[in-house]
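Archive record
______________

***
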Amino acid sequence: MRVVGTSALGILLGISLAWAGPLHEAARDGNLEHAGKLVGQGANIAEPDAAGEPPLLIAALAGNKDIVALLLEKGADIQIRNKGGLTALHAAAYGGHLDVVELLVSKGASINDEKNFYQMSPLHAAAEEGHADVVAFLVSHKADIEAKERNGYTPLTQAGWRSHWDAADLLLKAGAVCQQADLVGDWLYGECTKRK
């Protein structure tokens, strides 16, 4: 039986319909011209919206690479966190935005960051959502394939529970180990081991 894992990650990365300032809205909507104007006028690039999301995470989750680049260029902290402790790299990985993931990693984002409520890495986020291209990129950049989130589950287990077998197969090829049935259940253990 599965204990609550990172499936609630989406809640922590949800873009709120509550208060959002103009920069948050530009980050979400991908309006680079407006975002540039607001930053030029002194908009606070670190201020979270009512849901606790800073503009950098909003842009990363929405896949707005140009705005992510702008905010970083203007001094946004690449490791800024939302209220759940997640970073822009978690958000981009969860959203499946490989171009944003590549940009963030090239600028020094921590690939194995687990300093968040769920103690999960960006690889967990990508695997759980089945973003095989992001999984492959993170693995090629030394993401820890055996990292365990707070309930002890690895990215392979997260991918398997959601039947994202393309992502799971990439992790298996990289050497990930199927977690034991007493932790993940007979079904997932069986599905995982038959793919080895």
Notes: The chain is about 50% helix and 0% strand.
